[in-house]
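Example for tutorial group B:
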């Protein structure tokens, strides 16, 4: 599977040994409704198998859905995203995409 808006490729160092670990930091920046939004997430990586470079990739994985940043109301959506999408970052009952009646 893939994405119509994002593609991410990375290379593991040639000397990485089985069990070696490190973090992949991903920063996504953009603009929503005229406000600048930046989401930073860290994906922990561990070498679980080694293959020759000509064999391509070993596997794939998905980062956790938490986008990072401060989440004052604890609803799982960062304050930056709530503000950008017009919801209230201080109320767990208000999330981006909620219908306003």
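The residue assignment follows.
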């Amino acid at each position: 599977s893939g994405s119509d808006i994002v593609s991410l490729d990375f290379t593991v160092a040639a000397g990485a040994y089985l069990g070696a670990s490190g973090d992949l930091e991903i920063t996504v920046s953009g603009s929503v409704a005229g406000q600048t939004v930046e989401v930073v997430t860290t994906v922990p990586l561990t070498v679980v198998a080694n293959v020759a470079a000509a064999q391509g990739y070993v596997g794939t994985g998905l980062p956790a859905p938490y986008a990072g940043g401060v989440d004052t109301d604890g609803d799982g959506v960062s304050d930056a995203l709530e503000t950008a999408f017009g919801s209230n970052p201080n109320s767990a009952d208000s999330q981006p995409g909620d219908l306003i009646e």
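The radius of gyration is 18 Å. Compare this with the pattern of hydrophobic and polar residues in the output above.
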